[in-house]
Amino acid sequence: MIKTIKLFLLLATVFCFSLNAVAGAVQACPMCKIATEDAGDDRQPQAYMASILTMLSMPAALFTVLGVSLYRISSREQQIADELNDKTTK
Questions:
Q1: Contact 53/45 with Cβ under 8 angstroms?
Q2: Exposed/middle/buried for 83, CB within 10 Å: 0-12, 13-18, 19+?
Q3: How many CA atoms lie within 13 A of 68 on its CB side?
């Protein structure tokens, strides 16, 4: 169980770093790009890019929270099992 969780955390970390590398190459669809360019406001394209980066970071955040939660649960279960084994062997 612990090996599975460690593997999951490793994969989640690799996923996060790969999303970070891809985030710089994200481009808008052609119509969205034209709409933001025609708006004339310099801040609007930056806001659009920030929303794309936010959407890309959500799966990484969810996987991280899930992975840490699973790790804590398994650690707690392992600690309880070790305490029970110690009590029964004494």
A1: no
A2: exposed
A3: 6
Query: Over the Cα atoms of the chain, what is R_g?
Result: 22
Q: How many residues does the chain have?
A: 90
Q: Where are the alpha helices (DSSP H) in the chain?
A: 2-23, 30-38, 43-89
Residue with tokens 């930056």: 46
Q: Is the pTM of this model over 0.70?
A: no
The residue extents of the domains of the chain are 2-89
Each residue's pLDDT, cut to its tens digit, for the chain (90 residues) gives 667 777 777 787 777 677 666 555 555 566 666 666 666 666 666 777 777 788 888 888 998 999 899 999 999 999 998 998 888 886
